[in-house]
Structures are given as structure tokens and as C-alpha cells.
Amino acid sequence: MKCKITENFFDRFIVKDLETNEHKIAFLSGNVKKKNSVLIGDIVQVEKKYDKNIIVNIDKRKNELIRPPVANIDNLIIVLSLKNPTPDYMLLDKQLVLCYFKNINPIICVNKLDLLDEDSKKEIEYINKVYKNNGYDVFYTSSKTEENIDLLLKKIEGTTSAFSGNSGVGKSSITNIILKNKSNNNDVQTLKLEIGDIARKTKRGKHTTKKVSLFELENNTYILDTPGFSSYELYDIPYKELKHAYVEFSKYNCEFSDCAHVIENEDVCLVKRNVKCSNIDKNRYERYVYLYDKLKKIDDRKYK
Ligand SMILES: Nc1nc2c(ncn2[C@@H]2O[C@H](COP(=O)(O)OP(=O)(O)OP(=O)(O)O)[C@@H](O)[C@H]2O)c(=O)[nH]1
Ligand SMILES: [Mg+2]
Ligand SMILES: [Zn+2]
After folding, report:
1. What is the pTM of this model?
2. Residue whose CA is closest, atom 25 of ligand 1?
3. Average pLDDT taken over every residue of the chain
4. Which residue ranges form the domains of the chain, and what is each CATH number?
């Protein structure tokens, strides 16, 4: 039978039978154990052997991520919060780059809208200018007031979406609100999300969710809650192609098509010229250069 992996506890996997929609417990066969690690979201072949369900094969993945560790997703909902913690734009840019190269649709979700004050108003202005106006989907939500969570839910209907982002931004809180109203699999809802009160812990937030969980909603919609992170590194991205992940650069055609918009001067580099006159955000451009240098160094090391 064909199944989808929804949870993992040590050597046990909860799988959903895609024909009957039943949830079952399954174990890895020795073969699969040796070859691959199974990810939440994987489509697998399960066989009944004696009284046990055994995962004998993993289907080819549409995509896979290491952080968060998930497979076969359509959207990555990149969650930031206006405060506690404040937005980390480098982290956001890295995730947007990853989405571009993995063929995943990014959705930016800015949470804790209820904490809006003068400082966070500036963050909203910045996010609108640099991300929303360049075509990214941006939602402003609050899991306290539940504002705009219905809009986010509407956007992801019929798809599989993983939440990702800093620890403490509210991924589990948003997931819980969605599940409260829309959950379609109450038999597994006993596997509860863990929510930590970061106000009583460190200000920077604490890792509370320890593993990925996949939840099923109505109309073939799935959401995955994932553990948060504070550091996040890009891997396997050719530095020469990094520029393609920046929609705002593609508006400007440099004289040299292989220009990386890094070392050339403004006379020949149209992107740099537009950074100078503020058509392209300077900070986002500087984050690009930082990532470019980092990826280039990794590449240089390969050929030493
Ligand atoms: N004021 C306010 N607090 C929120 C909101 N959403 C979440 N919180 C609080 O922020 C803290 C962290 O929320 P979580 O949902 O656990 O965050 P998370 O992103 O799942 O964190 P990790 O599991 O560590 O990655 C908790 O104390 C929540 O109550 C919100 O919209 N407004
Ligand atoms: Mg969490
Ligand atoms: Zn250029």
C-alpha cells in the first residue's frame, strides 16, 4: 500500500494509507534503513509482514530539505515575528534562496502583529518595500488575536506547506490555531504540539518543538510544524547562480550577462547602479554579497 509519512517516534513511523486514509504504525525494513533516511512527507510503499507494517521503499521525492527536515512540500511558510524575536533578514534571505533552488513556493508570514508599536511599524514598512513590492507573498498574522490566519489558510488550501523560521516566532501557535478549527485527523491529534512560553525563558527564544509533525486538514491540505533554528547555512548552491534568486536584480540587464553584480563598478553593473540610487535595497544587496562570498569560498575550497 502507498502511504504518506506523518510522524516519527524513534523506530516507529505514523503513516497515512493514501487509499483508505487510515493512520497506521509502521517500521523501516532493513534495506530502507541502510540506504536512506526517511523524511516526514515521504511517500512510501508499505507491506504487511506478519502482524507488522513494514516500509519497503521510498518514492522519488519532488524536493527535500535538511532544515527543516521534510520532503515533498509545495510551500515553505517562512515565519518571522515583529518582536521577541525581531526579524532576522539574513535568515529570511537564506530561506528565500533555498526555496528558489529547490523549486518551493515561499510564503512570508510575519507574526505577533498584536505587538505592533513604533519600532515594529518600521519593520512592516521595510518588509513591504523590499519583499512584498517585489512580488513575494506576505501575510501579517497574530496567533493571539487570530488575525489574518484565515487568509494564510486560504492561500495554502490543497497544498502541502511546512512552517520554518527562528525559534519562538510562533510556528506551533499558528499551527495550533489552524488545527483547532480545521483538523481532519482527530485520531492523531493526541500527538500534541509543544508550546513554550518564551517570556518565561530567554528573550531570544528557546527550541521547544523537537520534531517535525505533519497534520492533515480538509481538501487535501497538509501542514508541517517544524523545530525552529537560530543559525542556518546554505549548502549546494552554485555561487554564480545565486543572483537568479533575487527577483529585484532580474529587472535590470547588466551589459555583461555573466555579471555577478559584486566586483564590477557602477558604470558597467546596472544592479550596482540601482543599489546606489536606492531602487534596490542596499541592505538586501549587502546580504547578497555576503552570501555570494561565502558560497564562493566553499567553491574555491573544493578545487584546492
Ligand atoms: N504576542 C504574541 N505572542 C505569540 C504569538 N504567537 C506566538 N506567541 C508566543 O511566542 C512564544 C513562542 O511561540 P511558539 O508557537 O512556541 O513558537 P515556535 O516558532 O513554534 O518556536 P519553536 O518551536 O521553538 O521553533 C509562545 O510564548 C507563544 O505564546 C502572537 O501572535 N502574539
Ligand atoms: Mg514550535
Ligand atoms: Zn552587474
Report:
1. 0.91
2. 228
3. 89
4. 2-58 (2.40.50.140), 64-225 (3.40.50.300), 239-302 (1.10.40)
